Amino acid sequence: MTNINSNGSTTKVITGSHAVSYGVKSARAEVITAYPITPQTSIVELLSEFCASGALDAEFIKVESEHSAMASLISASAVGARSFTATSAHGLALMHEMLHWAAGDRLPIVMANVNRAMGSPWSIWVDHNDSLSQRDTGWIQYYVSSNQEITDTILQAFKLGEMVGLPVMINLDGFFLSHTVEPVEILDQDKADQFLPKYEPQWKLDLDDPRTIGALCAPDHYFELRCQIQHAMETAKVKAVEVDREFGDLFGRYYQNIETYEIDDAETVLIAYATMAQTTLHTVKQLRRQGRKVGMIRIRLFRPFPTERLLEVIKPDVRYIVLDRNIGFGVSGIFCQEIRSALYRHDLRPKIFDIVLGIGGRDITPEIITGVLDKYEKLPTVDQDFYWEGVMS
Length: 393
Known about the structure:
This protein is an alpha/beta fold. The chain has helices spanning 16-26, 41-53, 66-78, 90-94, 96-104, 129-132, 147-164, 189-195, 219-251, 276-289, 307-313, 334-345, 366-376; strands at residues 2-4, 10-15, 31-34, 59-62, 83-87, 110-115, 140-143, 168-173, 181-186, 258-261, 268-272, 294-299, 301-303, 319-324, 351-356, 387-388. 40% of the residues lie in helices and 19% in strands.
């Protein structure tokens, strides 16, 4: 369904996967590589239609594996082409080697990863261990929670990646977003072009100006190059705020690295991300109407981790419950690991409970979130690293 709005923009009722495709089209990607994997396939299917019809002037390359998909984009980006691919779960894992190469070569490739649980046993449903397994590869990572945010973040990702010289991964929940339809305002192409001009890299492979990318590097320079990636990550935290502000001024929608709701007087604050942040927000609104002093923090940008913004909103006398749809085996939930690390480095140690739930696509309902609050806000201290919720006995 398509609707023409009063301001002349177009709204379509589309899936999250197609929201990715329209975002890539608005960004005028020039090279797209494609290899199918559930639940990602419909992203590149629609992009192939755009390319075939001439709606998007891009080179569409059908490859034999996800490893080849990323290797091809590394080559394309190295010669100055705006580059995109999409994958999921084991496809992302197969790319692992090439993710390091993309970041090491400082190439602003953008990739949509449709989060899906890792085998064994075989699964096509969502949790976030696939992308979180790649957290230290040097890729910027966003976790989005609506179809509108998907298409908006695709455009922001290209701009941010090209500003700081790092690849960007946009993570969206398999099926909960990828196959759910929502109204999405399609980005006006003139505004998109104003926001994201043609990609003009400072350095690229050029026959008329020969140079080398990714050659053998001796130890006396390798260390410095890694330091530069870290510096680019730190810069990205600041630039992400600037990019979002510019996007909001142009399109009227603003996002933040960390978003908050009703935290000023909250006694207990839930920390969530991805689609379960939407369910958490709905639950917190219901509980507020009942008079309970509950708030929410949503983490949108995971790499680089927005420590400074987190320190602004965390209070030492508030109880925090982190909802993790992942598990770092042998430690705890991965988002909670990051939060504790960020806070403890600055000697801020509030009560933090880590709740692991929703693994393998198990549903996270308002009733489950309310039950978590009822159970854990009564405990005076943290007596273990994390708690499983929703595990069948």
